[in-house]
Amino acid sequence: MGSKESLQYNKFEIYPNEGSKSVDIRAGTPRIEYRESVLNPFVQISVFVIETGSAVDEVTALEGLTLQGTEKVLFEIEDANGIKITLDKPNDLRIGRVANVSQSFKTVSYSLNVISKEMFDNTLLDTRVRRRLEGKISDIVSSIVKNDLGSDKTVYVDKTHNSCFEFGEDKPPLIRILELQPLSIPDGMSGKSAGYLFWETSDGYHFRSLDKLFDKKGKTIKKYIENKKGVSAVPRGYDDKILYSRIDRTIDALSQFESGAYGTVLELFDELTKEYTKSGVKSPPPEGTAEIAGEKLPQFGEEYANKATDRIVAKKNTGGSFGSNDSLERQVEKFAEEDIVAEEILWQAKQNFRQKFNMSAEIVIPADFSLHAGDLVHCDFPEISTKKTLQESQKNSGIYMIADLCHYGDKSQSYTGLRLVRDSFGIK
């Protein structure tokens, strides 16, 4: 597929907050940018609109609908292969911002930022999490999305090993989920690993284990190549060509040390026994239980082996770990038990978050709407050398995860921009 393939606008309608007549703004939208990120619990669409006064009874949508934000938006775009991004349900999207308004005698231009409706709902007092949360953390996250946030979107989860028994504390749903992310242990990994990410794509919400992000089992992994050749033909075995790339293979060792990514001490205070304990240095092994993207993790030499650069100070999370079906005697027994074993989780989750974004690459490919934030892709980049025969880079090539994604273009051409991340060097 070439870069000159068009972006098809199937639907871009705005419904006013007053009245029922919708406005189709496709004709006045020369460019669309659709974005997803594994660090954001929402999708967003940015557009620049130019209107000539024929949208609503010969006046513009900005004038005729008095756009102020929160208006319902129905949206669908399609790439050259017929793959669609469809967000056209009444509860999918809302206008978050109207800006850069410029008006002349017959035209008006402005930019729109469209976001997931749930971002507005998350601010409401009615959606605050006030109930008791009980059960597997993965089940709790799904319940918060559906029952507290009130979303009807699908929630995809990696099942958690551990459970949680506590109250919602009157917090916004997305904040409560954010607090549960570092406490979550993936099923089958016990206390050897911890930490989850929560984000949204056009397919729904995702609550995924950091340690399973690079697990290739059961996943479709597309392959892309940058071969610096002027011909448009895609080499056999690849899905498409990389049109542009920028590799950031620099390891900021000082930043990693300052953030505690490779050496942490955990200090705990037990309110029941009034005891204070301090752990030894917690450092991730070169090869742990988690699936890594490449061959080896960064190594900082023997001089800094088993040296701490950060500490976590916390209270033991005891009390209230009983379920509603436990007998009174069992509730008393569980009162002294830890809900979340801090020694097993806190340090590992913090280091895990830091390490997964060690190395990054930015690439641009022909538009491919089948890709989403969180997907794995295989990229082959050329080796930088003086050799006459072009070879793939053994350092830069390999598996990456899509951290940020932007589908963008107009009716004449379209592209997909990806920010890719990985935790290790080399081709596995």
List the helices and strands and how they pair.
Blueprint lengths: L7 E8 L7 E2 L6 E7 L6 E8 L9 H4 L7 E7 L5 E4 L5 E11 L4 E9 L1 H4 L10 E5 H12 L6 E3 L5 E5 L5 H8 L15 E6 L2 E6 L12 E4 L14 E2 L2 E5 L4 H7 L4 E7 L4 E4 L31 E6 L1 E2 L9 H7 L3 E3 L1 H14 L3 E8 L9 E5 L17 E12 L4 E9 L6
Parallel strand pairs: 10-13, 14-15, 14-23, 17-19
Antiparallel strand pairs: 1-2, 1-5, 3-4, 3-24, 4-8, 5-6, 5-7, 7-8, 9-11, 12-13, 16-22, 17-18, 20-21, 22-25, 23-24, 24-25
Helix pairs in contact: 3-4
How would you summarize this macromolecular structure in one to three sentences?
With about 425 residues, the protein is mainly beta.
Structural write-up:
The protein has helices at 61-64, 118-121, 137-148, 173-180, 253-259, 328-334, 342-355, and strands at 8-15, 23-24, 31-37, 44-51, 72-78, 84-87, 93-103, 108-116, 132-136, 155-157, 163-167, 196-201, 204-209, 222-225, 240-241, 244-248, 264-270, 275-278, 310-315, 317-318, 338-340, 359-366, 376-380, 398-409, 414-422. 13% of the residues lie in helices and 35% in strands. Among the domains are: 8-118, Thrombin, subunit H (Beta Barrel); 253-353, no CATH class. α3 (137-148) runs antiparallel to α4. It is mainly beta and 428 residues long. β17 (264-270) and β18 (275-278) form a beta hairpin.
